[in-house]
Amino acid sequence: MPNLFSSLQVGAIQVPNRIFMAPLTRTRAGEAHLANALMAEHYAQRASGGLLIAEATMAVEGHSAFWKEPGIFSAACVEGWKLVTDAVHAKGGRIFLQIWHGGRACHPALNGGAVPVSASAIAIANDEVHTPQGKLPYTVPRALRDDELPGIVAGFRQAAVYAKDAGFDGVEVHGANGYLLDQFLRDGTNKRDGQYGGSRENRARLLFDVIRAVSDVWGSDRVGLRLSPLNSYNDMRDSDPVGLATWLAERLNDFNLAYLHLMRGDFFQQQTGDLMTPVRAAYKGVLIGNMGYSPAEADEAISSGKLDAVAFGTAFLANPDLPARIQANAPLNAPNPATFYTPGPEGYTDYPALAA
Question: What is the CA radius of gyration of the chain?
């Protein structure tokens, strides 16, 4: 599969192959939200990927949505992540940090009783969140005031500074999967008026403000963006997801980003449509596809110009040496969902490499 193994210029960095590791929440950071030696081992094992995109990481303290996810909001967080970046770089790898705010997906039981915030006061329905008290229903969030939103942008900016201090090669802004920036983007969750609601331009204002702030820290050529306009995860909808994605792709050309990372489908098949074709036509930069690509489909998509790279999720989770396995046409380890979010090395650092 020569296309998957060709080099690619991704903004300011060159990568040796187009097999990227998608951001995968694994809840191994403990209740202090600090990256650690176990996480360093996990990412270093996967350093042969063209680019590793580290998991959703709290940009602002006190907005936990996964209980034991990592953060990047303090000097202690920086020191924890240095273990990871040093280990990945020692193996010759490249790693971006995905910076994230959970919005209404956060829960008071994870945040000292604090009420979550969102674009509008609409709770996630028909789902529950894991907490120290067991699984609990999501709560109704508080709609952020317009005058609070510069503080959100400042939080992302500071997270970008900390990510730079921690030795990452760049950052990915998380605008997908029903978290705060996505809650503003999609009209199913953004029912506000004023300059952050109504039109697409207004709904995208917070996202664009965050991209500008983070780019001021890093340079836009070390900033990526992840979007998922079709995905209904976290009880999300938009009245015109393909139109939204196409409009965003056109506008994002102005930012000279390292890449646009697009989830092409919906985990739950509630919304369908072809995102990739109109986005590829509209977006002039590096386009990364994600969700359910086989190596063969990924290679064909790159060969035909539909994509520039593919981010693999569970395949990279279970196969630390995924590029070598693909190149050798070797069988892949099967992932064990029972250990996706459990503590410790089981199902995390103990998947065997091909040589074993």
Answer: 19
